[in-house]
Amino acid sequence: xxxPPLPLTRDIVLIGGGHAHALVLRNWGMNxxxxxxxxxxxxxxxxxxxxxxxxxxxxxxxxxxLEIDLMRLARFAGARIILGMAEAMDTTEKTVTITGxxxxxxxxxxxxIGIHSxxxxxxxxxxxxxxxxxxxxxxxxxxxxxxxxxxxPGLAASGLAVIGAGVAGVELxxxxxxxxxxxxxxxxxxRAVDSADxxxxxxxxxxxxxxxxxxxxxxxxxERTEVKRITNVGIVLEGDTVLPAGFVVGxxxxxxxxxxxxxxxxxxxxFVRVDDSLRSVGDASVFAVGDCAHMDHAPRxxxxxxxxxxxxxxxxxxxxxVGGGAxxxxxxxxxxxxxxxxxxxxxxxxxxGLRLEGALLWRWKDRxxxxxxxxxxxxxxxxxxxxxxxxxxxxxxxxxxxxxxxxGCGSKLGRDTLAQALAxxxxxxxxxxxxxxxxxxxxxTMNGQNQVISTDHLRAMVDDPHVMARIAANHALGDVFxxxxxxxxxxxxxxxxxxxxxxxxxxxAEIMAGADAVMAEAGASIVGGHTLIGDALSIGFTVTGLAxxxxxLSGAQPGDALILTxxxxxxxxxxxxxxxxxRGPWVxxxxxxxxxSQFGAAQMLSAAxxxxxxxxxxxxxxxxxxxxxxxxAARLNLSGIPLLEGALALSQSGHRSTLYASNAxxxxxxxxxxxxxxxxxLFDPQTAGGLLAAVAPETAxxxxxxxxxxxxxxxxxxxxTEGAPHISLR
Length: 730
Known about the structure:
Layout lengths: L9 E6 L3 H12 L5 E7 L3 E3 L4 H6 L8 E3 H8 L2 E4 L2 E5 L4 E4 L3 E4 L2 E4 L13 H4 L1 E2 L3 H17 L8 E4 L3 H18 L5 E4 L10 H14 L1 E4 L4 E5 L2 E4 L4 E3 L2 E4 L16 E2 L2 E4 L4 E2 L2 E6 L4 E3 L8 H18 L16 E4 L5 E4 L5 E3 H19 L17 H4 L16 H9 L9 E2 L7 E5 L2 E11 L5 H18 L3 E12 L3 H22 L2 E10 L3 E9 L14 E4 L5 H9 L5 H11 L4 H6 L5 E4 L4 H13 L2 E4 L10 H6 L7 H5 L5 E3 L18 E5 L1 H13 L5 E7 L5 E3 L1
Parallel strand pairs: 1-2, 1-9, 2-5, 9-21, 10-17, 11-12, 11-17, 12-13, 19-22, 29-30, 34-38, 35-38
Antiparallel strand pairs: 3-4, 6-7, 7-8, 14-15, 15-16, 18-19, 20-21, 23-24, 24-25, 26-27, 27-28, 28-31, 29-31, 32-36, 32-37, 33-36, 34-37
Helix pairs in contact: 1-3, 1-8, 5-6, 6-7, 12-13, 14-15
């Protein structure tokens, strides 16, 4: 007997994408606990690894090298990832508030948000300086400053400054000196300022080695010196002495995030107090790890080594907290080896007070750091279940070579299969119903008013119900917008996976909040719907709209310019994501495109002669729909078609949506001058894709300009031409 998926009964929410949580995701993917919905919240799709930041600053690593791909880890773990900033936590109601989204509920939560080195109380800091933590913001600002130095080497004279001369501040100052020298082609003065003694907290031998290295690199220490304010020319010290600096970074101390103080959790100097199981003191449903936690049983300095070693204990205890085993104790080591890079490919070691330094130590540190990152990147292949034997003829072919079935439009029937099914329907005629096989929606005429109606449904390809609802709502509205109509009302059809009543309530709340936001922006009301329970999440909407003069595909004219309002590539990116083959930022970019409303774009294209939305049949299929309806040919300029980042690379490496092969049969009706690698993307099924409009050529430039100024990645991609329905590529 086939065993259906087990119902979801508990929500575990990981707040932050720190090192410990990244390792928990990997651990969970290797051994998931059935019945748990795992969620990770992080502002971006990646998180920087602190151990490699000095190497990045010095120019030894690229930005990609130090980024942990949280989206890929989440896909491997079967977890949903919410790209947003946690800003509050209600431990009574057990909710986390995410900026711009609202609340999500948890049964068990873990906090791994790190620390920051912002100095809002220091006059001028917010305007003229950047904190070293969070690392992502600093890394972006530093890369931009290096670009300025390369373009204008004369800026080197303004120098650099670091506020904070502890071990981390000094390591950062040396890295900045090395990286800036490479960029500018000359020495760049660096100053490190601290209100206390520099290099506190390390042994005498390591401190002597580092001070000598600072002198060699031209880094000046200003110890026991107070900073009064920061201006656009540098740092002003007590006594109004000015230290010139064109780039100022704050690295003084470890500051907890302010919102933790409002949670009601037990804190020590703003950090979450935890016991030896890493649970919050006084609240057994909340864990905390990494720099944001204070271990009551064994206080330790803020260092990434503890977060890494907390990970296996945290993974086990999260499972135990929802009934999946026994709790473990975390016992941190008393001391640890500190490897401090010195700008160039050399390092100083601090252990037992000895003086150890040299290139060999840097290579050792490099191997340790790369091994950590490789562990998070080298994920075991997600293999399909073994097929039963014997099995019926045709099963292997129907499974598309063992690839997992795509979600979104990639899971739909092909163009030819659907056309054959519709062709078998007997003709129906009503005076108040106008339909053609080509148009995106039917037109109902009542008392002289035209109402368009369409329906669409998507199998989930992201694990976040809120985001999936936004995608599905935008996707369904596309048909209404393509008819030149204003949205009116929507009915929802939602299939939820098996879960407890409490999780179903949470899912429905997230779905309806996401869908309502999209529908409300378009002017539509959700007026009801239907729910079912099945094996997987899927969301659909039947949408109506009002149109005085519906836009028909047959209205295209010879010479019309073809305008596309969104880049293509969602199908190949999401297919690669399912196979762990896509980078997190590429997936995040595809999701951002799918959740972008086309409401404003539709208004700007109200004078279009013909319009459709680019969805499951791909750009080529939907353009051919215009050609067939209008009895015209079309010419596409391949180089002018906007692409999502990563789409071309993934297509060239062989990734395909499950609907691709069916769409590609249309190639028989197309011609191309030469071999264009991106031509394959014309058959890529799009989910919540852009509008494709045929507009008068004299208005095209203005329309594209208006679309771009309104935030749409729009482009003129070709034109309609005389001739039998056909697409030529150039």
